[in-house]
Design the sequence.
């Protein structure tokens, strides 16, 4: 069976040109069109805008205590720069937002907080996309490389008037968004866990070529997830730092639960990566064991034929007994042929008995 790996979708990364000054902004290659939507709410009121400009955002911030802006797509650089300047975002934060492929991290600037995470998607192959978060007084901005449904549940909670999210500040909204990002890892990890169980059963029952290919595919995906899940844990823990003075006491209680989820996700990824390595070792050991069994059978067969070949070769030398009485007198025996066959049988039986005593047939 062919072990050709399945097609991989490359990791889309964009980095500033070597030697460029800090804060140089460039849209990533292949970036999609930019859309900007907003939700804002206060006591008893929620408004939504599917497409909003800088002036509209200023009006929302003036009229509502909580404003949530969602940006999908990084293709319109001019619009993103205008929006960032109007909201007072640091140039380095905007550069990190545009240089997708960032390691999850948390940066504290003078006027706002900036965080990076990655959201996994499992289709034919594993894909991830970067999500950036800007946090300011009464404002949360989430930026995705492309459209994503990972935060749809948070939006529905706000639309349905859930009291916790509607009556709390932007700190609780930050918790809800962070929790949704962390939870997006678990369906994928559950699927990987089931795949590991199935492959472990298959490897133990009957190791086949396709198992090693699937194991390496799974290992590759888990290595990718580990690159993002482990630092994401550090990001969520960083939101709890007292010096940030970001979360209210009630929200800190919920964020502690999110920290537990992030730690659990990182631990599961680490454990599954170790499990894959163990299964690869198990597969190789079982294949080697099977090969050793085959070699043992071939060795037994070859060893049995060594004395038979010697006897057949000895009596096939065709020395003429008429010239000398010492030239194979057995050729003149009445039962010479049965004697040769019996000698072969005795030699083979003796070797089989010796192999049995040595435990080769157990």
Sequence:
């Amino acid at each position: 069976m062919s072990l050709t790996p399945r097609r991989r979708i490359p990791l889309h990364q964009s980095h500033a040109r070597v030697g460029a000054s800090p804060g140089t902004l460039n849209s990533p290659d292949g970036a999609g069109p930019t859309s900007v939507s907003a939700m804002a709410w206060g006591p008893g009121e929620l408004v939504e805008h599917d497409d909003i400009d800088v002036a509209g955002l200023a009006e929302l911030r003036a009229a509502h205590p909580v404003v949530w802006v969602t940006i999908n797509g990084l293709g319109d650089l001019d619009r993103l720069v205008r929006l960032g300047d109007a909201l007072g975002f640091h140039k380095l934060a905007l550069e990190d937002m545009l240089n997708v492929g960032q390691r999850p991290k948390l940066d504290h600037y003078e006027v706002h907080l900036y965080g990076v995470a990655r959201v996994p998607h499992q289709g034919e192959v594993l894909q991830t996309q970067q999500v950036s978060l800007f946090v300011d007084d009464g404002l949360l901005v989430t930026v995705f490389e492309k459209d994503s449904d990972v935060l749809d549940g948070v939006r529905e909670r706000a639309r349905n008037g859930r009291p916790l999210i509607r009556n709390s500040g932007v700190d609780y909204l930050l918790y809800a968004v962070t929790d949704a990002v962390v939870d997006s890892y678990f369906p994928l990890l559950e699927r990987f866990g089931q795949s590991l169980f199935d492959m472990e059963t298959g490897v133990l029952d009957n190791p086949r070529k396709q198992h090693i290919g699937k194991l390496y595919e799974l290992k590759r995906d888990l290595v990718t997830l580990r690159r993002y899940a482990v630092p994401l844990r550090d990001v969520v823990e960083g939101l709890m730092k007292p010096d940030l003075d970001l979360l209210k006491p009630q929200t800190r209680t919920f964020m502690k639960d999110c920290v537990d989820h992030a730690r659990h996700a990182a631990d599961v990824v680490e454990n599954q990566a170790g499990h894959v390595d163990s299964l690869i070792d198990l597969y190789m050991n079982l294949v080697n064991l099977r090969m050793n069994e085959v070699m043992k059978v071939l060795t037994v067969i070859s060893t049995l034929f060594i004395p038979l070949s010697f006897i057949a070769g000895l009596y096939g030398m065709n020395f003429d007994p008429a010239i000398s009485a010492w030239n194979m007198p057995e050729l003149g025996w009445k039962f010479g042929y049965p004697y040769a066959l019996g000698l072969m049988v005795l030699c083979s039986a003796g070797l089989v008995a010796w192999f049995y005593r040595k435990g080769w047939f157990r």
Summary: The first helix runs from residue 54 to 63. Residues 1-5, 7-12 have pLDDT under 50 and may be disordered. Residues 182 and 261 are 7 Å apart (CA to CA).
